[in-house]
Amino acid sequence: MSAQTPINRRDFLKVSAVAGAGLVIGVYLSGCSETPTPTGTATSSPTGTLEQPESPSVTPEGPAWLEPNVFLKIGNDGGVTITVPRSEMGQGVRTACAMIVADELGADWASVRVEQAPGDSVYGDQHTGGSRSIQQTFQPLRRAGAVGRALMIAAAAQIWGVAPEACYSEKGVVIHQPTGQQLAFGELVINAGSLPVPKEREVPLKDPQDFRIIGTSVGRVDNPDIVMGKATFGLDVRLPGMLFASLARPPAFGAKLLGFNQDNALGIPGVRHVLQIDGGLAVLAENTWAALRGREALEAAWDEGKTDLNSAELEESLLEQAKQSSPERESELVSYYVMPFLGHATMEPMNCTADLRSESCEIWVPTQSPQDVKQRVTMLTRLPDKAVRVNVTLLGGGFGRRLARRCRWPGRAKMIFASTFSTR
Amino acid sequence: MAIIKFIVNGSEHELDINPETPLLWALRDSLGATGTKYSCGMGQCGACTVHVNGEAVRSCVTPVSSVGGKEITTIEGLSLDGSHPLQQAWITEHVSQCGYCQPGQIMAAAALLARSPHPSQAEISAAISGVLCRCGTYQRIFKAISRVAAEGGVI
Question: Contact, B63 vs B21, CB < 8 A?
């Protein structure tokens, strides 16, 4: 995580939202035993229900933050929290997206903290692939930051009784150009909360020559955690009492399971269940090694699958298509390159962690398409959209392998309390 | 099942565990130390590299029974606060991309510098060539190790 943690949500039991302006006041109630699930990393999320008190209680000395849109929170301690909608797989998107918002806001980069967005349509298209994240999010994220800047400036201008046009923001403070007087973002949060949030399209964007963070090398926000072994990838998610599942999948495309014997697998200490699922078998165990051994101990018979597929014909067919699509030119350089059919093997095996309950389902998954996962989970569990939360962890490699829109879930997922699913 | 005692990052641990369990899973599942990564599970990729009595080993193919009484160091124990010269050099050189292999890379590099504080380029190449990085960060890994070696090595 970058820099500091301005707001520790663990301290808050109740959070109230002031309608319209988007000012959020955190109220700390000491001595209460009920606390929301910890939040704040790329991988964990608040699961506690945020209660709405009948009347908003504002405690000016307590923690408060302005939340003008889903990408941005500005705390009254000056901390800026930026929510990144795209998945991090080493391309630096968590850093880059945060830089875009922070620059338009006029934030101090040292006070910026990054959160990972869960899969949700409020963040726009979250598919992370094709090297298009910055191209696609640049303008929306700039607008998100610019709205925050407009609010900070409007609040300061109101306090000073000056024209907003005479003010600008830089390094976390609003400055009145003619007089040079300054107010820090943290001091403006409460006042800004009573102002209307300007429409995104009506807020001017910075002239690119005024960029202060974009174009600099700030260092990846995840690097400190990575080098200390603290970064949380999908396989690192742990839930109390969880089981670990290993999948036995078809050995060939389209191969169907003919039969299986689970006795040897169940004989391995730690193995709890063997389940037949869509497309294969799942061995559930108390630890990963037992699950992996259990899968190896399974006796399973498969049919041959799609026997009309073979590498030579596949290659010939592709080459034929390539030749047909060659454009007509006066002079041509013709050269064919043939690559073998390769798996996009990621260093982190495919995996997913699920906490399925009767009225909710929470997922932690290293995915390039969290909205698709959410849609799929909602369909499978028949839970309402708001009861499903899909948290995106760091991805130990993506390469498009984690973009697949079809994810395999055990047909009997609701029998499983919490499990890690892996390719192995 | 058997009682296995060993020291991880300076703390003694006693596990009642199947002695064939790979050290990797003793660390990750029994002790909750998830900094050491699982990837190939066959000792081929090096993502699971840890130190056993100072030597770099592949924890995914090291039975926990073989480390009884020994001292294990994982990425979490290299330093308490990320201050190890290699960790700092990794940040300075912007080494990591996805980051999944980097704990293994850093542990392999740390073992190298402990036995050879000023390694030749060939020694560095030999030490890191066994730890796979699918993002292809090798050039920066090389630079980070060279930086530490040039700045006085690992204390």
Answer: yes
Q: What are the residues of chain B with a beta carbon less than 8 Å away from any beta carbon of chain A?
A: 1, 18, 21-22, 25, 28-30, 32-39, 41, 45, 47, 74-76, 78-79, 81-82, 86-87, 90-91, 94, 96-103, 106, 132-135
Please report the number of interchain residue pairs, chain A to chain B, with beta-carbon separation below 8 angstroms: 117
Interior angle at CA A34, CA A32 and CA A35, nearest 5? 105
DSSP annotation of A350: P
Identify whether A418 is part of a domain.
no
The token pair that represents A88 in the structure block:
């991090």
Q: Which of A94, A221, A227, A399 to mutate to test the interface with B (most CBs of B within 10 A)?
A: A227
Q: Which two tokens stand for residue A114?
A: 């990054």
A116 within a domain of the structure (yes/no): yes
B38 to chain A: closest CA residue: A348
Are A288 and B79 a contacting pair at CB < 8 A? no
Token pair of A87, please?
């998945």
Q: Please report how many Cα atoms fall inside a 13 Å half-sphere around the Cα of residue A14, on the Cβ side.
A: 15
Query: Does any CB of chain B come closer than 8 Å to the CB of residue A342?
Result: no
Q: Could you tell me the CATH number of the domain that includes residue A200?
A: 3.30.365.10
Per the domain annotation, does A73 fall within a domain? yes
Percent of chain B with pLDDT over 70: 98
Of A89, A224, A269, nearest to B98 by CB-CB distance is: A89
Residue A415: Cβ within 10 Å count:
12
Hey, is the C-beta of A269 within 8 angstroms of any chain B C-beta? yes
pLDDT band at A56 (very low <50, low <70, confident <90, very high): very low
Neighbours of A124 (CB within 10 A): 16
Residues of chain A positioned with their CB less than 8 A from the CB of B74: 229
pLDDT of residue A411: 33
- Asked if residue A341 belongs to a domain, the reply is no
Q: Going by DSSP bridges, is the β-strand pair A173-176/A182-184 parallel, antiparallel, or unpaired?
A: antiparallel
Per DSSP, helices labelled H in A193-310 are 223-227, 263-266, 288-297
Contacts of B22 in chain A (CB under 8 A): 289
CA distance A345 to chain B (A): 8
A104-120 pLDDT, tens digit each = 999 999 999 999 999 99
Structure ipTM:
0.97
A158: Cα within 13 Å, side-chain hemisphere: 16
Sequence-distant (≥ 6) Cβ neighbours of residue B101 within 8 angstroms: A347, B37, B39, B45, B46, B47, B131, B132, B133, B134, B135
Beta bridge partners of A364: A353, A391
Range of the domain at A53: 22-227
Rounded Cα distance between A143 and A39, Å, is 26
Model confidence pLDDT, tens digit, residues A363-386? 999 999 999 999 999 999 999 999
Give the mean pLDDT of A328-352: 81
Chain A stretch 222-251, residues whose beta carbon is closer than 8 A to a beta carbon of chain B? 222-224, 226-233, 235-236, 238, 244
To the nearest whole Å, the CA of B110 is away from the closest chain A CA by: 12
Tally the domains of chain A.
1
